[in-house]
Amino acid sequence: MKKTLFVFAFVLLTISMFAVWNVGEPITDDYSWTDSNGEDHSIHELTAAGKAVVIFWGESW
Length: 61
Fold this sequence. Notes:
The chain is an alpha+beta fold. 34% of the residues lie in helices and 10% in strands. It has a domain at 24-61.
């Protein structure tokens, strides 16, 4: 029982630690980058097109 409770609490805390940009809050800095295909992207362009932006700081293989 303790193990189940611990796992449940751990999962709940992990989920609650995700950062979310509040809807309607303006993005003041324009972050831009080039992806692995050589295409340039900008947060302002993507959000103006109605797309959600997910930033992954991982490695591409």
